[in-house]
User: Fold these one by one.
Assistant:
Number 1:
Amino acid sequence: MNDILTVEKLNKSFGSKKVLKDVSFNVQPGKIVGLVGPNGAGKTTIMKAILGLFDFQSGNILVNGERISIVHHQPLSDVGALIEYPGIYPFLTGRQHLELFADNETTRKEDIQNIITKLNIESYIDRKAKGYSLGMKQKLGIALALLNKPKLVILDEPMNGLDPKATKELRDLILQLTKAGTTFLISSHILSELEKLVDEIVVIDDGKIIKQTSMEALSDSNGNYLVLTTSDDEKARKVFIDEGIKLEQTTEIRIKKTSDDQLASLIQLLSNHGVNIIDVQHEHSDLETSLLDLLDNKQVEE
Ligand SMILES: Nc1ncnc2c1ncn2[C@@H]1O[C@H](COP(=O)(O)OP(=O)(O)OP(=O)(O)O)[C@@H](O)[C@H]1O
């Protein structure tokens, strides 16, 4: 399938500071891709470059196969975005903001009402934005990004300022729009939230892409553990260490899962030494653990 977004060998400097270094990744239609990495890694800079907000030194950005640049924005008509803080006019109401940005004359009223209902912002949409809380402004910013039914939506920290209910409503809406074919590129530091949403992640650190991977592959390669409770944990530990089986540095007996028949051989080994297994738990490492692991052992992908 053709990519809806392709970023190829993007380089960007601010003065003498190199901020993006040969950044390449791609996004396929209908996917939700998370852009993650430490503070200052370059996430917002990538998103701004995709939106044609500044020039870059070298590389290509293609939306639906068409090149974006500071002087060529046409392909961005299919893109909706919320980057950093929503630009809000204090003396306009939320609805007036939506009216200002709605680009379809004929369906304008209907589209506006739809997005108001979906984001549950009816109760304050006719009040002036100067009285909005951080979360209310954020929701209005998201409404503006989604209003014109873009094919690709770019959201920088969309959960900023949202309460748990609003976070869940936004998550449900993103999943619903994805089912209907919309594509999302989302950056967030709230990894527990992001992992409920994304199909793939792109990991960036210090301006370089460390990895692009599906969540499935990440969890398979990185994060399944067996946690054992035995009749004699001390003896069990010694048996495993003597056999060269690596134990994680935790209080429980935790072993990284490497194959489907591994548990049977562990049971056999302990039983040969008179130790019984009382309980086995299968644990998946979460996105945060996987990400920290990736950043600790980083090897830039070719
Ligand atoms: N306009 C600018 N002028 C100079 N340096 C900038 C500018 N914008 C960003 N930078 C620098 O570029 C680097 C990447 O910043 P960016 O905002 O893209 O990071 P980020 O990954 O979005 O970080 P965060 O998670 O903290 O939002 C940082 O070192 C930042 O200081």
Number 2:
Amino acid sequence: MAIGEALGRLEAVVHDRLAAGTVEASYVASLAAKGRGKIAQKFGEEAVETLIAAMSEDDPALIGEASDLIFHLTVLLAERGIAWADVAAEIDRRHGTSGHAEKASRS
Ligand SMILES: N=c1c2ncn([C@@H]3O[C@H](COP(=O)(O)OP(=O)(O)OP(=O)(O)O)[C@@H](O)[C@H]3O)c2ncn1[C@@H]1O[C@H](COP(=O)(O)O)[C@@H](O)[C@H]1O
């Protein structure tokens, strides 16, 4: 599955859970109910777990931690009202810029 498709599907579900605000049985809603600081804290914890996994030779562990990290970043962005499309546009903008710089340095 393409990364954009996976992130888009996850983002849509996260938006639904934030809008519903029903804490029971929803990890996203219960995390959001604890506030922005808690979402950011969870993201930071997952970042540390990802870097620890990165230092091992355990690929499934790293994939799992990277998935947790991206999931929490999706919640963090959604709670701030920022869409993955906004991040994609910034990445594209930088890619275009560095591409030109690369071409210029080669000529
Ligand atoms: N992709 C995820 C996902 N990835 C990770 N997690 C949760 O993130 C938490 C990771 O935190 P930890 O590893 O620290 O585990 P923990 O001890 O349970 O966490 P805390 O008690 O410290 O909060 C776990 O509870 C995982 O279940 C996720 N929870 C939900 N989703 C998806 O998000 C969508 C909405 O989920 P709900 O809000 O639960 O309906 C669904 O599509 C889910 O598949």
Number 3:
Amino acid sequence: MSKPTIALVAHDHKKPDLLAWANANMQRLEQCRLVGTGTTGGLIAEQTGLTVQRFKSGPLGGDQQIGALIAEGELDALFFFWDPLNPAPHDPDVKALLRLCSVWNVPVACNRSTADLLITSPLFLSLDYQREVPNY
Ligand SMILES: O=C(CO)COP(=O)(O)O
């Protein structure tokens, strides 16, 4: 398997959580191709030194760009620390992104504990594991 592609996204109040998690998982993240929404991706690249391909900011279409990667079969996992306590102007985009993860059986972590379990799973970087992709 080539490097898995994973997306990193966080709403503003959750960015510190995602950043702390990224710092704690540098070695694993270095083995992945990283993409992210604009502000999140920039922050992670700047503060960890990891290379992150940045899409537009979430409210400007970044979630949808990541959704497009999913629809094209190019995303292996989404780490999306969304904010359950503050409404986002682009909530439909957020829902659409999470929905596509279910449609295409893409693993998604919405908080730090799930992100820990996912990134440390022996299946995650395993050559033997093939995620089942639905055949619509
Ligand atoms: O709004 C977002 C996800 O819905 C994240 O966008 P930013 O990374 O640009 O803040």
Number 4:
Amino acid sequence: MFVHKMGSNVRKSLGFILHTYLKCHIFALVLIFLSFFFVLSTTAAIGFLTVSSAVTMSAPFFLGRVIDTIYTSASDAETMTASLTSLCIMLAGVFLCGGACNAARVYLMQSSGQQIVRNLRASIFSSILRQEVAFFDKNRTGELINRLSADTAVVGRSITDNLSDGLRAVAQAAAGVSMMFYVSPSLASFVLLIVPPMAGLAVIYGRYLRSISKRTQDALAQATQLAEERISNMRTVRAFGKELSEVDKYTQKTDHVLNLAKKEAVMRAGFFGVTGLSGNMMILSVLYKGGLLMASQHMTVGELSSFLMYTFWVGISIAGLSSFYSELMKGFGAGARLWELLDRKPEFPLNEGKILPADQLKGQLEFCDVSFAYPTRKEAPIFQNLNLLVPAGSIMAVVGTSGSGKSSMVSLLLRLYDPDAGVITIDGHDVRDLNPYWLRSQIGTVSQEPVLFSCSIRENIAYGATDPDAVTTEDIYRAAKVANAYDFIQMFPKGFDTVVGEKGVLLSFFCEIVSFNHICCFFPKNPKILLLDEATSALDAENEFLVQEALERLMEGRTVVIIAHRLSTIKNADAVAVLDQRRIAECGQPTELLGNRQGLFRKLMEKQAFLQEEQQRALI
Ligand SMILES: Nc1ncnc2c1ncn2[C@@H]1O[C@H](COP(=O)(O)OP(=O)(O)OP(=O)(O)O)[C@@H](O)[C@H]1O
């Protein structure tokens, strides 16, 4: 039974190692991984391992000979000195060679290991970035970051340094046992009776460790998730004075991790305690039985010493094997989630599908009988049989109460999600047939959220370019001028080289970020279609004017969908669509819709005008 279980575990372990290596071959930077250097270094490491293990395991045998030399020629001092000196010089040379091989093995395995971790990280990151947007609704940022950093490190360690040490332990244990049988078969059979129960214990321990390791990695991912969310929303936490309660929540999560780690520690302590005890019992039994064999002239003192040293080595190798097994099981636990990520095929292709000739694209948009619910909230439909036509080159304003689905329309047009029923077309082509890369390159978007990376303003502006390195300073200045943002950027001491913090927090005014954001989104795509999501809602009057002016310039000759509440943004629209009850309830020219006293648009605008009046009165 145990043998069977051991066999299946060994098979699983080998499968796991092979899987890991193969995954890296498939997903990682294949060229580097399969490069001559890697194959060569791994082969060399195995060669060094063989030599260093052979040296280590031959040492007890020769040391036994040294002892016998001392013991048998003790009466003749001259002979003893001569043979002892030559034996010791020879052995010192062999040991030196073994030490050097061992050092080379460790270096080669470590550097190959780092290469594997790097490739694994690159593959996981690439796989994450290829996933559809709905995947990110279901999987939180902190958790994914944890997989990318902590889990890859655990898997990397378990199949590199650990594997190298494990192979060494296997080689030494095998050589040690063989030498024990060579030196004294009867003593070896007696001592090795302890191995089967130890193997059974290792199987039980390995299973437990694998499951607890998976639970620990999951708990750690949850803690990282919480920390990531709170740190990235620090202003909200501070505004609500929630620092202490958030610390409590985080502490609870880390306590959970700690509890699991304690359970693992108890198990480890028990296992290592038992293995240590068995090692000592083995030594004791060798001394006892070996002493008896010496007394009956069946063994020399040198042979008993050699045997004792082999027993030590086998004991150390078994301890090394159990730690190898522990790390491997931890790797199993952490690896399970990584393979899920690596194996996951994105629901939408990233760069496949029809590409229309650029000069033929007119930009007519149409929603035909579209029904949609977010994959994470299938029970709450956002649209049901929604129809809307935006003629090419026209400006369509979409209005509706908060949560009516305005931004969701933008997400569908960008094909961040697919509708559950109906079709969305561009110039009559179903967006699902079009190449998503190409589609998005034809659409300029401005969202409510400022989208800036923590690098210089110059780099942020060039981000949209196909080849950011080819963007000249003149291009960047021109784009900033088009967006009326050149002057405020130049006001920073470092101008366009100012480094923007996370979410652009180093830029002093939010409005500046929003205007700045506009440039980033339009430059340098020159898109046929613009989607503006409440573009000016957070601006003060002066900046709104600047941005509005820039936008009007940019809207010329393009199909534009504006999502805005303000009359000022809507007044330039050719038509207004009012979203209500999961469909377009009204659609027509703004003046026409305002004329309908019972209409939804009129009511929305009245409500807004009333709110503005209230605000003004409050200020007076
Ligand atoms: N990724 C998502 N997953 C699940 N539900 C979502 C997601 N994004 C938005 N929703 C929900 O879909 C509904 C419509 O959201 P949407 O942002 O499209 O409305 P909106 O009209 O643009 O609202 P607002 O004017 O407040 O921006 C809301 O109830 C929102 O909570």
